[in-house]
Amino acid sequence: MYQCYNPAVIAEVVEAEEADVNVSVEMSSETGINCTIDALSQVFNKFRSGYNKCIKKLFGYHRTDSMSGIPMNLCLPTAGTIVHNSRVLFHQPCNASCNKIVQWFADIGVF
Prior knowledge:
The chain is α+β, with helices and mostly antiparallel strands. It has a 3-stranded antiparallel β-sheet with strand order 1-3-2, covered by helices on one side. The longest helix has 20 residues, at 39-58. Helices cover 58% and strands 14% of the residues.
């Protein structure tokens, strides 16, 4: 859940709605405006699809072959593993940072 307080951010959400991205906006008396944007899941799906297509082409698999066992047979990480490892590598220096702004962003759950 992403909390929007800035009018510029709210304007971006409205633009995202017009760009055919799933956006839900709810008013809350406690937290202001809560926005849920589905764009991140769309980006991940495109990344996973491209990653799977590349693996199939590079290693000679047919495009209709299932990707459930291919990465394990080739000793390669799945797209989900790559995203998870990237997220962990991003969070480690942020959590160890002494910068008050970075700590504030971590506390409110931006990343």
